[in-house]
Design brief:
binds adenosine-5'-diphosphate, Rossmann fold, 21 strands, binds magnesium ion, 7-stranded parallel sheet, 6-stranded parallel sheet
Length: about 700
């Protein structure tokens, strides 16, 4: 299947003509539409309704059920502006054979309503009905005047669009109808029939038409959930086009050829000797996947995803071992100096058995010293280089970089990944992320990577216990902190803000610092960490905490990323309702990573909404990071993840991906097939396809 050779595709040029090509749109209207981002015919076609009114279900006023959204039709008896205490309101009374009803506005354009309020005018009104002293009423209804010539509108499902200033709903519907008529004859689907049949999707024009003007027999609930085959088809296009980009990237990468590594003989037996424990089955599977990648002739580009504590570093060590055995260098990049230090310690401890010669690149090194190290790295005297962003420094080059390991992916962008990769000749790349997300989301956000998931914890791992602490138990919480400090353990206190502000009365870092200092210092040392400190200062504080020189650390979420302080066993989170579930999960993963059980206390607020309360309860009852992530996404239903924007996925949002996982997987499969059969497909000079993609995605693509 080839889109580019499709002879019909050139017809799409017509779709990118300016709107003034349509009859009824002159420069004036075009300007109004332009303000809404609608410039071409294609833009207008993809300007889909935000909602639908079911005009097939007109209820007699007398039977409209209070609490329901109802559509009624009635004749105006009178209408006028009134005063209600100090407020103005506009009231129109309508009547049908069964009863009468008041339509009420508090915000309105008087002229507009006065025109509608002429006695004898027929109106249809839509909105939630309520009872006011036993008579029915709709406040701020949607109202349309019924003329002879729009009676037919009453027969179907009426699309409701996001409003375009200066253009009435009715006019907008007419313009869209015109646009549909205009293209009907020449638009031919860019997806082949076979594919549509296979996935049970309507063709493009039908989908667009039905999304605007649903056919009889549609179900209003499905329409309003965007859950019709027309909506699916248009969603499929969005997914498909994003997946094409991703598949293309992946393919390009796969076509690079690198010398295959040889996997050391009897690797699994050797692994048993390296570690005092045996690998979990998920770790074993991940090792196998890495082995396969590395032994093939194409560069590995693998994401290793697993919750905090599931043992990802072991996989990194084994990968590095394979690289070292092939006489290649390994670079390990961490997001913070503390984490780099931690890795240095870990990999040094394995250097004897696994043959690592690691060097730590520290941001504080003097220039002369650093140059000396650079020189040695260039000469290949170290086979492992550990550091932060410093690894991307221009001056640093390797003798033969074979493997790049990136820890805590979400701190690094795609660009940085590419930069460190360019230090070698297409080195293998292993990215580790402790932000577990569902697979459908992962294949979109990290679309060009292969994915290994670890969902199992090592034996003996105990997740942090999580409790919600209400007012009455605050004393108890405080006593526990004190007790833990007294036996030499350390504590975190997390707050949503650094300082108090007039707008909110949130407990802040400064606030809590003061309170804890008053209560506990001396004898305990208390310090703070937050995003406004310099990078250097943050590192200093974290290092001091790591070394046990600080007993209690009050901070914002800057402590979120993977610091392993085995001695920190308790974390108090103030205003947990201010954080996302996944973020809270990350935070609590910081405690209890040693042999001592971690404790996470979430401080409840009187002002919690019911929604907050149930969300936070979810966290207290689930300890698996993947489950938390899934719940988090379900509850949020929209928004985005860090890194989504950079991943070339246009403006697909979480909600869409979560709602249509099957469609997404199907789109990916089809996109990969297309790219396999025609890899040149997405070259940027294919401007027509680009236009379609941009309209479908409502945003320029960065190809
Ligand atoms: P993370 O995935 O958060 O990076 P780590 O790799 O730091 O996790 O591992 C957490 C702890 O679990 C470490 O102390 C590590 O030695 C230990 N560990 C890893 N794998 C196993 C295993 N299979 N059995 C027992 N302990 C393990
Ligand atoms: Mg880790």
């Amino acid at each position: 299947m080839s889109l580019i050779n499709n002879p019909h595709l050139k017809e799409f040029h017509e779709l990118t003509l300016p709107l003034t090509c349509l009859k009824g749109i002159g420069p004036g209207r075009a300007a109004l539409l332009g303000k809404k981002g609608l410039y071409t015919i294609l833009d207008l076609l993809y300007f889909l309704p935000i909602r639908y009114q079911d005009r097939t279900r007109l209820s007699p006023i007398g039977t409209a059920i209070p609490g329901d959204n109802c559509l009624v039709r009635g004749r105006v008896i009178y209408g006028k502006e009134e005063r209600f205490y100090r407020r103005r309101l506009f009231k129109i009374l309508i009547q049908d054979e069964s009863s009468s009803m008041e339509l009420v506005w508090f915000n309105y354009r008087k002229q507009h309503l006065t025109n509608l309020a002429i006695p004898g005018t027929d109106l249809i009104a839509y909105g939630p009905v309520n009872l006011n002293r036993n008579s029915r009423q709709i406040i701020h209804p949607e109202v349309t005047r019924l003329d002879k010539d729009n009676d037919e509108e009453l027969s179907g499902f009426c699309p409701v669009y996001s409003s375009v200033s200066g253009i009435s709903e009715k006019m907008l519907r007419t313009l869209i109808k015109d646009a549909l008529d205009f293209c009907h004859s020449f638009v031919v689907d860019h997806l082949p029939e076979g594919l549509l049949l296979k996935h049970n999707l309507p063709n493009l024009m039908q989908a667009i038409e039905h999304a605007h003007f649903p056919p009889r027999g549609s179900l209003i609930d499905q329409l309003n959930r965007s859950d019709t085959s027309s909506h699916h088809r248009l969603m499929f296009d969005r997914f498909f086009l994003v997946m094409l980009t991703i598949a293309h990237k992946k393919k390009t990468r796969e076509e690079l050829s690198v010398p295959a590594f040889s996997v050391p003989y009897n690797l699994s037996r050797k692994i048993k000797k390296f570690f005092p424990f045996s690998l979990t089955s998920h770790q074993e599977r991940a090792v196998k996947e890495v082995e396969n990648d590395i032994a093939s002739k194409r560069p590995m580009n693998r994401l290793l995803m697993g919750d905090v504590g599931c043992g990802k570093t072991v996989i990194a060590a084994i990968s590095a071992y394979i690289s070292v055995q092939n006489n290649k260098q390994t670079a390990i990049m961490a997001p913070t100096q503390v984490l780099a230090d931690q890795h240095m310690k870990y990999f040094s401890s394995l250097s004897g058995v696994m043959g690592f010669q690691p060097i730590l690149l520290n941001g504080n090194l003097k220039k002369a010293e650093r140059n000396k190290i650079y020189k040695k790295i260039k000469e290949g005297r170290y086979n492992m280089v550990i550091g932060t962003h410093s690894l991307i420094q221009e001056a640093l080059s390797f003798k033969d970089l074979g493997l790049v390991i990136i820890d805590e992916q979400h701190r690094f962008g795609v660009k940085q990944r590419a930069l460190i990769g360019s230090k070698g000749d297409n080195p293998h790349i292993l990215v580790m992320s402790a932000t577990p997300i569902p697979r459908t989301l992962a294949i979109t956000v990290y679309g060009d990577m292969d994915i290994s998931m670890i969902r199992e914890y090592p034996e003996g791992y105990i997740p942090a216990e999580t409790y919600i602490i209400n007012k009455d138990r605050k004393k108890w919480a405080f006593d526990i902190i004190k007790e833990r400090l007294s036996i030499g353990q350390q504590a975190f206190v997390i707050c949503p803000t650094i300082e108090e502000s007039k707008e909110t009365d949130l407990r802040s870092v400064r606030d809590m610092e003061e309170r804890f200092k008053k209560a506990l210092s001396p004898p305990y040392r208390i310090d703070i960490i937050h995003g406004r400190l310099s990078q250097e200062k943050k590192e200093q504080v974290m290092t001091a905490f790591y070394k046990g020189k600080i007993n209690l650390l009050v901070g914002t979420t800057v402590v979120e990323v993977g610091v392993h302080v085995p001695n920190a066993t308790i974390m108090v989170i103030e205003h947990p309702e201010r954080f996302g579930l996944a973020q809270l999960h990350q935070l609590r993963g910081r405690v209890g990573r040693g042999t001592k059980r971690g404790l996470c206390l979430l401080i409840q607020d009187d002002k919690w909404s019911e929604e907050s309360a149930s969300r936070i309860k979810v966290l207290a009852s689930i300890s698996d990071g993947f489950e938390v992530a899934q719940k988090d996404l379900e509850l949020r239903g929209h928004g985005e993840l860090t890194g989504m924007k950079q991943s070339g996925m246009g403006d697909l949002n979480l909600g869409e991906i979560m709602r249509y996982p099957d469609l997404l997987l199907a789109a990916r499969e089809e996109a990969e097939k297309v790219v396999d059969s025609d890899p040149g497909l997405l070259r940027p000079d294919h401007s027509i396809l680009r236009d379609i993609m941009e309209s479908a995605l409502q945003k320029p693509l960065d190809l």
